[in-house]
Amino acid sequence: MNLYNDNERFISILSDYGFKVTFGNESDTRFLRRALQALIQSTVAIAKVEFIESEIPGLTKDSRSGIYDIACVDETGNQFIVEMQLSKYPDFIQRMKFYSFYRLNTLIRKGKYRFEGLPRIYCIGILAVNIFPDVADYHNIAVLKNEKGELIDDQTSFITVELAKFKKRLVSVQTDLDKLIYTMKTIHKATKPKQFPQFWNEEWLEAAIKELDTRAMTPEKRMAYEMTLSANALAVENENKKIQEAKSEVKTEAVKKALNRGKLTVEEIAEDNGVSTDFVLEIQRGLTQKP
User: Fold this and answer.
1) Which helix (H) or strand (E) holds 84?
2) Chain centre distance of CA 192
């Protein structure tokens, strides 16, 4: 998925930069507030949000730590955690539970270990790929229910959006949730005003789209954008390097085992492992030089 393209007018919301200047825009929360209301399917408008600490410190030397993309609280005390996931992550729900349980534990401790009057926690995951193969809906809200589907508790809600499952055409987009998802999937593909749907003129979406418009960038925003591109390129390069190193280590161990067995020629070992004969010979020399 190419989230950065110099030929595109608008930056993708799914990119690091796009997510930060829309969902993570602390100076203008119009988009975030309306988006959160749509994601949790609330009929009550969110009047105010305050960003809070998004890092989870390890409670002990060996315990897990973590950091989520956005953490905020509204004027009533409701807590929101928002995570964006572009690649496959089979254990994503476990990560969401880890984040939400930490928030719950923090709230309980602040209340001197009392459980009444706790605010709601909404743990929201926006995913570019599908993680629920047996679930047809692209938007799901999960709370605690019994085997009959009767509500037991909704103090903590897990909201997931699987963007790949959203197939609605523009004429069918009516709700704020659908407008949000449609915009997230298409904004970076739009170049001409005639491609813009009418609802992009709505205040909350217009505010976000303005932040994504490369033509309207100030020099400071352009610099921030270029720095993000540079950082992402370096991160990709480092990740690819780690992958190649890991592959090399695996092949090295396989070649060592084959050499120690002594049943194959150097050429056969090289062919079986997809490496050069020089690679095998170098490892062979290392083994023979060991005391």
Assistant:
1) strand 79-85
2) 29
Burial of 23 (0-12, 13-18, 19+ CB in 10 A): buried
Q: What is the pLDDT of residue 64?
A: 39
What are the residues whose beta carbons fall under 8 Å from the beta carbon of 250, sequence distance 6 or more? none
Tokens 């963007």 -> residue: 163
Integer Cα distance of 230 and 233 in angstroms: 5
Residue 147, φ and ψ in degrees, nearest 5: -65, -15
Q: Which of 83-97, 134-148, 181-195, 273-287 has the highest mean pLDDT?
A: 134-148
Contacts of 216 (CB under 8 A, 6+ apart): 210
Q: How far is CA 75 from the centre of its chain?
A: 26
Q: How far apart are the first and last CA of the chain?
A: 50
What is the spatial distance between Cα 46 and Cα 51, in angstroms, rounded to a whole number? Answer: 14
Residue given tokens 């928002």 in the structure block: 82
| Residues 100, 124: Cα–Cα separation, whole Å | 10
Across the range 183-212, mean pLDDT stands at: 90
* Residue of higher predicted confidence among 23 and 53: 23
Residue 214 has pLDDT above 80, yes or no: yes
Q: How far, in Å, are 50, 52, 108, 199 from residue 117 at the CA level? A: 20, 20, 10, 38
